[in-house]
Amino acid sequence: MELSILVRCSDDIRLIKCIDSIDVSCQVVVTMTPNLELQKELESRGITYALSPKGNPAATTLAGIKHCYYSKVLLIDCDCIFLPGAIKRMYTLAQSADIVRPNIEFEATDLSSYATRLARDFQYTYFGFIYEPGLLLNLNRILPLIGGYLFTPFAPFTPDGELDYRLRQFEISKDLKIVTDSDRTLIHAALSFSKHLHSYWRYGFSEASRMVYLEQPVFMNFVAGIAYRYWMAWSHKYPFSTGILIAICDLCYIISILVHLLLFILRRNQKHDSK
Q1: Where are the transmembrane segments (predicted)?
Q2: Are 181 and 93 in contact (CB under 8 A)?
Q3: Phi/psi zone of residue 72: left (φ > 0), alpha (ψ -120 to 50 degrees), beta?
Q4: Most CB atoms within 10 A, among 19, 67, 85, 176?
Q5: Structure confidence by residue, pLDDT tens digits, 143-155
């Protein structure tokens, strides 16, 4: 199969379980932070890997992309596993599409992770154009249309959001065929709601970085997105509890954007004054 699967990982032992869920013959590339035990395991399996510093998932992805020798690349995180037949189904869709979006299911093992599952399910269904993990991209088709690069280190925790922005901003999506997997693609490991909120806080940092360094109007776009999300929640009669969970996430996200935006501006002014 002419497909490269790029597995992103910090130094998580769940990487092995993720790799074992790959049920097709294809190229597998791992990008990770240094971990001698995992590196030896990958070498024994003949799997190519790239090492990158911790703290910037976008840069981690870019380090691995360099080793992918097929134009069709499927991005996956080590805390996810593919469901049987999902990769083959997505690859079949990619024969006539430029981007294949996954159908992600969050595992729920307790009330906290169930809250995360509700919030993420709504987000992936009704908000967001391009999202990962599980995204399959035809790079030969996409890269020439988006400036020659997939992700930018200046959006460390929201690389898919920045890609989404470029596709929308330049109306590139009109020239691309984008489809969504109709069946479940992958299972994401259970995530407590507190860790879910921590992710949103990091997303806010990433979005503030985009505003400062890439001069993208992230905040106004997000305000419009919030209004759209709540309208969709109301029109699709989602439970009131789901709306509360989404509101908590949005509040955390907005506060993070404002706090980090202020810190970026203060830091830039300090550098300017020191010159």
Answers
A1: 212-231, 243-266
A2: yes
A3: beta
A4: 19
A5: 888 888 899 989 9
CA distances from 196 to 97, 200, 201, 202, 220 (A): 31, 7, 9, 10, 23
Q: What are phi and psi of 76, to 5 degrees?
A: -145, 150
Secondary structure percentages of the chain, helix, strand, coil, to 5: 55, 15, 30
What is the pLDDT confidence band of residue 73, given thresholds at 50, 70 and 90?
A: very high
Tokens of 137: 């991209």
User: How far, in Å, CA of 232 to CA of 87, rounded?
Assistant: 30
| Dihedral Cα 84, 90, 91, 93, nearest 10 deg | 140
Collapsed DSSP state (helix, strand, coil) of residue 185: coil
